[in-house]
Amino acid sequence: MSSQIELRHLTYFLAVAEELHFRKAAEKLFISQPGLSRQIKQMETILQVDLFVRDKKKVSLTPAGHYLRNRAEDIFKQLKETKRQLQLIGDGDTGEIRIGFLGSAMQEVIPDLLLGLKDKFPKIKTSLLELSNQNQVDAVLKDELDMGFVRLGRVPAALNMKTVFEDTFSLVLPESYPMLTREYDGMERFADDNFILFSQDYSPYYYETIMSICSDAGFVPKVSHKSVHAQTIFKLVENNLGIAIVPTALQYGFQMRVKFVELKDIRQRALLSVIWKKENRNPVLQNCIDLLFDS
Q1: Which residues touch 232 (CB under 8 Å, ≥6 apart)?
Q2: What is the pLDDT of residues 176-229, one digit of tens each?
Q3: What is the model's pTM?
Q4: Which PROSITE patterns match (predicted)?
Q5: Domain that holds residue 76
Q6: Overall domain count for the chain
């Protein structure tokens, strides 16, 4: 009997961990149930720990089993990613970078990064996925993304985070709002207006920042609508359903009947940061980080 854990052990273990039923797992693996049971028992003997609680009614994972399931899934993700990168290298490419982003990052940072990659590393492939802040954090932690562009105050210790762009905020008003842009004299005059904000779940750091802008002006905003899309927010403002505060860069690329008032004199700034996992071994990642901060 082998005294080492092999990939087949992990494959068998994950099948049972997912099904929590030895017969169903054996059918999924196209092996006999007694054979599967022997493999799991062998694994437990090698590791000197019980991975499953077995009784006549059900099978469940022990605490050690739960831990191993997470680690085994990570191992197979890493193997899958390694195979993918090797295939790219074999095709004459130097690799791939998977990037998550908020919509506002597409206005300033990501186009410059993509152009820089195309110029200096033309064989690097890029894939982009627009996600919320928290979904990006989760995906980077799970090695489903190599890097993300977020608006967060802090991230888990396993991640690096560095500011890449500092923007002002702008007030968004309907074109028909009874105030000219040059007449703006402070946020206090908007205390009675309804506000349309990005959802707190989508971007809690942004949400709290907007709350602090209004708090500094002496009021708590009346939030009438929330959305995860800038275009939706602008459309609601356009239809006189409220006003909004957004990062200034978001005003570009939308043709709507709204007007923007840049809030230059407030202390708050819209910070866009890049995040990446400290243990990420994708060789392309460092080239991207260098491009972001060398320019």
Answers
A1: none
A2: 999 988 899 999 999 999 999 988 888 888 899 999 999 999 999 999 999 988
A3: 0.66
A4: HTH_LYSR (PS50931)
A5: 7-85
A6: 3
